[in-house]
């Protein structure tokens, strides 16, 4: 765990997401499966970005299992971005040559083969090209349609962050953004999500309850954030009104997993 609340393998921690997130990064995340069930084929052929991507498992699954046109992940922790890039090359190494269409092809080579022979080369993509709307092009095939970047989404002015996306995912990350950047930073986050989505695009949120904020500042966790918590006036129950002002309409939600999943659409 580091100063930003980035637990190692946070997205895949069985203890923190019992029943909602797999214990291993190669297993399909139930949150993605749920979202795809609520809005069928929501990811297929779309440009998606995962804010606070951690170990990159969700980003890789978007491209490989849910057939997004492109999948990007952003995190403030370079060590996690390195881990995500390694996970991408690991999944690419298990893929049947010239195929990315089904589970048998995705897990064609056993884990033992990758451990014995190493990863297939999977170099990061050069984003020199731009599609004209500020959105930088990614090649169409896996793994080259996946990209990871180490930046702070709230405070970055990178062209990649100002791009147009069809889907933005924010799973169990808003609490940390809120504690680090206070109410003003939370407002920036939601405004940036709105400006970065195309009309009709989706913002998918897994929001931590206020009790989770309070647990986060306990002595054995992040007591240095206690002063930030004391300054917050905005609480999770206020988020819908904030999102409405940014032209978001909630089109689906589910309580099937430990934390409620909200799907908003930009109008």
Return residue spans where pLDDT drops below 50 for at least 5 consecutive residues.
Answer: 9-21, 126-135
Order of helices and strands: HEHEHHHEEHEHHHEE
Overall mean pLDDT: 85
What is the rounded Rg? 18 Å
Question: What gap, in angstroms, lies between the N and C termini?
Answer: 37 Å
Share in helix? 25-40%
Could you tell me the number of beta strands? Answer: 7
Q: In brief, what are we looking at here?
A:
The protein has 267 residues and is α/β, with parallel strands linked by helices. It is built from nine helices and seven strands. About 9% of the residues have low confidence.
What does this structure look like?
The chain contains nine helices and seven strands, in the order H-E-H-E-H-H-H-E-E-H-E-H-H-H-E-E. By secondary structure, it is an alpha/beta fold. The chain has a seven-stranded mixed beta sheet with strand order 3-2-1-4-5-7-6, sandwiched between helices. The protein is globular, with a radius of gyration of 18 Å. About 9% of the residues have low confidence.
């Amino acid at each position: 765990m580091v100063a930003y609340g980035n637990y190692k393998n946070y997205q895949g921690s069985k203890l923190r997401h019992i029943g909602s997130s797999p214990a291993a990064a190669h297993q399909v995340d139930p949150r993605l499966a749920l979202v795809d069930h609520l809005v069928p084929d929501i990811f297929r052929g779309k440009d998606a970005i995962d804010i606070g991507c951690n170990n990159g498992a969700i980003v890789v699954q978007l491209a490989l299992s849910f057939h997004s046109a492109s999948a990007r992940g952003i995190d403030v922790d370079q060590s996690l971005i390195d881990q995500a890039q390694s996970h991408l090359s690991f999944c690419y190494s298990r893929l049947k040559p010239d195929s990315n269409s089904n589970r048998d092809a995705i897990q064609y080579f056993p884990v033992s083969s990758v451990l014995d022979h190493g990863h297939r080369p999977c170099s990061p993509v050069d984003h020199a090209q731009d599609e004209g709307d500020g959105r930088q092009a990614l090649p169409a095939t896996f793994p080259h349609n996946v990209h990871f970047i180490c930046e702070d989404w709230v405070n970055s002015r990178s062209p990649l962050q100002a791009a147009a996306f069809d889907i933005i995912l924010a799973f169990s990350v808003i609490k940390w953004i809120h504690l680090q950047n206070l109410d003003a930073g939370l407002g920036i986050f939601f405004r940036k999500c709105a400006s970065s989505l195309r009309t009709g695009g989706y913002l998918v949120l897994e929001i931590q309850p206020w009790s989770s904020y309070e647990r986060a500042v306990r002595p054995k966790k992040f007591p240095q954030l206690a002063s930030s918590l004391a300054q917050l006036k905005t609480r999770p129950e206020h988020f819908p009104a904030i999102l409405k002002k940014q032209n978001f309409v909630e089109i689906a939600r589910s309580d099937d997993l430990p934390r409620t999943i909200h799907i908003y659409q930009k109008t």
